[in-house]
Amino acid sequence: MNKHSEGKGSEMNPLHTSTPIFESLPLTNALGVSVFLKMEAFQPVGSFKIRGIGYACQAHHEKGAKHLIASSGGNAGYAVAYAGRMLGMKVSVFVPESTPAWMREIIRREGAEVIEYGVSWDDAHAHASEVARREDAAYVPPFDDPLIWTGHASMIDEVADAGLSPEAIVLAVGGGGLLCGVLEGLHRVGWNQIPVLAVETEGAASFAGSVKAGRLITLDRITTVATTLGARTVAEEALSWSHKHPIVPWIVSDRDAVDACVRFADDHRILVEPACGAALSTIYNRAEPLRKKNPVLVIVCGGAGVNLALLGQWAQQYI
After folding, report:
1. Ranges of each domain in the chain
2. Second-level CATH architecture of 3-48+147-318
C-alpha cells in the first residue's frame, strides 16, 4: 500500500503487483492526444481482478475464515483461486455450464475445487451464496462488494503517485466492480471531477441501460463476445456513482472490441480479452468525449480468457 491508502488495510501485504503506466505512441497517434495505459494485464492472474478480490480474500483470512467460495466462470474465479493458494486457504469456485474446459483447468491449477452449477453466472452465484452460508465459508462475489472496490482503488493511488493527472479515464464495465473501485480511488486522491468513459458492448450494456432508465435494469440475456462483461445487472453502487461523478456510458460493437484486441496485439505485442478491447476501441475509433481531453488514461484490464487461437477465431468471425 502507499500513502494514499494508509488506513485502508495497510497492514496487509498486497497480493497484486504495482503495474506499469506508460504512454502508448500508437494510441496517442490514433486519438490525437496523449494516451497513457495502466497495464493491469500484467497482474499475476492477467487481470485487474486480483486487486479487489485479493484485498477481500485477505480481509476474510484475517477474520479467521478457512474456506473461500466464489462464483465465476472466468477472471474473478481465477483471482480467488490464486489468492486462496497464496493465503493457504481452501477455495471452491462455482462455474456455470458455459465455462470453457480450459478456464476450469486454469482455476484448478491454482489448487481450487471447481463445481459446475446452472446455465448462467446468476445461477452459480445464487447457489454459491447459499453454500457459503450453509458451510460458514467466506463468499467472494466477482464485483459487488465494498472490499473489492477498495482493493481496486489502489490502481488510482499508483497513478497519482506516478505524477500523472489524466483529464479523462477510460475503462470497461461488466458488473461495475472496476468502475466503483476507480471512482473510489479518484475521490480518495481528490480527483472528483475527472470524467470516466464507461464502456460496454452492445450485448451487455446493463450499466448504460440503468443510467438511461434511472434505475437498475436486468438484461434478458447476454449476447456478446465480451463474455467477461456479461453481468445482466450491474452493482447498485455503480448506478449510485452516476449521480455524484461525471460518468459517460459508451456502447461499442463486438466488431469494434475484437478489432481493438487485434490492433493492440499488433501495436504492443500483448493479448487482451474483448472486454478490454471494448475500452481500447474508443481510442482507436476516436470517441467524441475523448477528443479534447489530454492526457487520457486507459485501464488495460487484461483478462485470462484469451490466447492466439481464440483471438484468431474472433477475428475471423467479427472482422
Report:
1. 3-48+147-318, 49-143
2. 3-Layer(aba) Sandwich (3.40)
Write out the DSSP string of 136-158.
TPEEE-SS--HHHHHHHTHHHHH
Check: CB of residue 59 under 8 Å from CB of residue 130.
Answer: no
- DSSP assignment, residue 12? S
pLDDT per position in the chain (319 positions), as tens?
444 444 344 457 789 999 999 999 999 999 999 999 999 999 999 999 999 999 999 999 999 999 999 998 889 999 999 999 999 999 999 998 888 899 999 999 999 999 999 888 888 999 999 999 999 999 999 999 999 999 999 999 999 999 999 999 999 999 999 999 999 999 999 999 999 999 999 999 999 999 999 999 999 888 888 877 678 899 999 999 999 999 999 999 999 999 999 999 999 999 999 999 999 999 999 999 999 999 999 999 999 999 999 999 999 999 8
Q: Could you give the CA distance from residue 176 to residue 26 in angstroms, rounded to a whole number? A: 28
Residues 119, 289: Cα–Cα separation, whole Å: 38
- Tell me which residue of 179, 215, 209, 174 sits closest to 195, measured CA to CA: 179
Nearest to 45 by CA among 99, 103, 120: 103
Q: Which CATH architecture has domain 49-143?
A: 3-Layer(aba) Sandwich (3.40)
Backbone φ and ψ of 104, nearest 5°: -60, -40
Q: Do domains 3-48+147-318 and 49-143 have the same CATH topology?
A: yes
Find the DSSP H helices in 43-120: 49-62, 75-87, 101-109
The DSSP bridge pattern shows strands 67-71 and 168-172 to be: unpaired
Neighbours of 268 (CB within 10 A): 18
